[in-house]
Structure formats: structure tokens, C-alpha cells
Amino acid sequence: MSDDNKITITVLYFASACDATGLSSESLTFPLPQMRICELEDKLKARHEKLKNILDICMFAVNKEYCGKDDIVKEGDEVAIIPPVSGG
Amino acid sequence: MTESVDFVKLTTDPLDLQEIVDLVKDNGAGAISTFSGTTRNTFNGKTVVQLDYEAYTPMAIKLLSSLIVTARSQWLITKAAIYHRLGTVPVGETSVIVAVSTVHREESFRAVEFLVNELKASVPIWKKEIYSDGSVWKENAESKRCCRS
């Protein structure tokens, strides 16, 4: 039974963000119907002390698309923390 | 059934340039340009022992495929391939190969340059340089960064 007043999302951590949290992913539930990326960012900073400085330079992606800090996160979304890339 | 013309792959296997050239080879194309990126042995005087690559694979595949679509909107591309290696890559080995076939050479030069530059700026792939006395996650100079509003 879905509950309209809370959301559960999956957060993915890569590279330096993975090292800082010791996690490659985690499932998080918030008592809100939805939230903005910037609100999620603040909650993640509070949750993971070592992630604070890293998050300031990271991009976010929701469901595999880059997004802005004002974009909305909804129930079931997959949110990836993308540190500066270094492919090639 | 239409023949596949674009090839995007992330793999832990060593990359074989000839195999990728053969993928984009086409009798209607007079030019094939390729770019090979290889792993360097030093950074700021420190000796690099090996490099470890990781990716957000589903998003990287999606973005690489969409980069080829964008390139196709700018140049007349016959076939294109982007292969990137993941996992441990020893120094001196190839970490990325981009190959494009076109009717005339100029467009293949431009398209390869575009695809390599965009890959380095925005595709979620990361490399960690391992030194004899530690390691560091690298950041491409052209990488997209968050700008706080």
C-alpha cells in the first residue's frame, strides 16, 4: 500500500562519494510527499559527515538524467551523486 | 532487418583497435578516424602503478549513445563506435577508443574530436590513479561541475 506522505528513493554513490560514505547505494525514506534535490543534498550532508565537501562539487542525476538543484525527487526515484568525471 | 551502425560498450576486457575499426568499416565510407586514450605512467612526478575505472554504467551507455545521435545531427556519419574500459587498467594500455566512419575525412576528424571531448566532460566514468604511496580519484579539467545557485 503506497503512502502519499512519504517517499522511498535509492541514492547511488560513485568514486569519491562512494569512498566518503563507504556505500555504493542506500535506500532512504523521507516523511514527505516529494522533495527538491537541494533538500536531499542537505539531508545527505547531515547523514554523512565526510560527504559535505564532496557534494558541493557533485552533479546529481535522477533516473539516469542530469538534473538541477531545484528539480523534484519522487517516490521510487533513483538519485545518483556524480562527482566530477574522469573518463577517457 | 537493418544493420547496426552504432556501437557503445563498457568492458573490463582489453580493447582491440582493429576489432573496433572493423565494426565501423563500411564500403560506402572513405574515411575512418580513431582516437585511442592510453593510461600514463606519471602524474606530477609521482609514479602511477595502475588505474582503476568505474562507471555508472546504465547512464554512461545512455549518454554515449545520445552523444552519437547528437554527432549524427552535425555530421554525415556512416558508423560510430565508443568503447571504454572499466576495472583495473595497467599503465600503457588503452582505456578508451572512439572510431567513426564517414564518406569524407573531414567529418570523421570533427566527429571523433566532438565525441572524445563530450565523453570527458559529462559521461559518468571515473578513474582512480594508484601510486606506490596512495591513490586519488582524478577529475577531468572539462568535467561538468555543480554550480551553487
Automatic annotation (TrEMBL), chain A:
Keywords: Cytoplasm, Molybdenum cofactor biosynthesis, Nucleotide-binding, Phosphoprotein
Keyword field contains Nucleotidyltransferase: no
UniProt subcellular location: Cytoplasm
Modified residues (Glycyl adenylate): 88
InterPro entries recorded: Beta-grasp_dom_sf, MOCS2A, MOCS2A_euk, Mopterin_synth/thiamin_S_b, ThiS/MoaD-like
Residue numbers of 1-thioglycine PTMs: 88
Pathway: Cofactor biosynthesis; molybdopterin biosynthesis
Gene Ontology molecular function: molybdopterin synthase activity; nucleotide binding
Coiled coil: none
Location, primary (coarse class): cytoplasm
NCBIfam families hit by this protein: moaD
Job of this protein: Acts as a sulfur carrier required for molybdopterin biosynthesis. Component of the molybdopterin synthase complex that catalyzes the conversion of precursor Z into molybdopterin by mediating the incorporation of 2 sulfur atoms into precursor Z to generate a dithiolene group. In the complex, serves as sulfur donor by being thiocarboxylated (-COSH) at its C-terminus by UBA4. After interaction with MOCS2B, the sulfur is then transferred to precursor Z to form molybdopterin.
Subunit structure, as described in the record: Heterotetramer; composed of 2 small (MOCS2A) and 2 large (MOCS2B) subunits.
Name assigned to this protein: Molybdopterin synthase sulfur carrier subunit
Automatic annotation (TrEMBL), chain B:
Pathway membership, UniProt: Cofactor biosynthesis; molybdopterin biosynthesis
Signal peptide bounds: none
Reactions performed catalytically: 2 [molybdopterin-synthase sulfur-carrier protein]-C-terminal-Gly-aminoethanethioate + cyclic pyranopterin phosphate + H2O = molybdopterin + 2 [molybdopterin-synthase sulfur-carrier protein]-C-terminal Gly-Gly + 2 H(+)
Pfam family, one: MoaE
The UniProt record lists the keyword Transferase: yes
Enzyme Commission code(s) on record: 2.8.1.12
Protein localization: Cytoplasm
Domain of life of the source: Eukaryota
Primary location group: cytoplasm
InterPro entries: MoaE_sf, MOCS2B_euk, Mopterin_biosynth_MoaE
Annotated keywords: Cytoplasm, Molybdenum cofactor biosynthesis, Transferase
A GO biological-process term: Mo-molybdopterin cofactor biosynthetic process
Record's function text: Catalytic subunit of the molybdopterin synthase complex, a complex that catalyzes the conversion of precursor Z into molybdopterin. Acts by mediating the incorporation of 2 sulfur atoms from thiocarboxylated MOCS2A into precursor Z to generate a dithiolene group.
PANTHER family documented for this protein: MOLYBDOPTERIN SYNTHASE RELATED
Assembly information from the UniProt record: Heterotetramer; composed of 2 small (MOCS2A) and 2 large (MOCS2B) subunits.
Protein name, per record: Molybdopterin synthase catalytic subunit
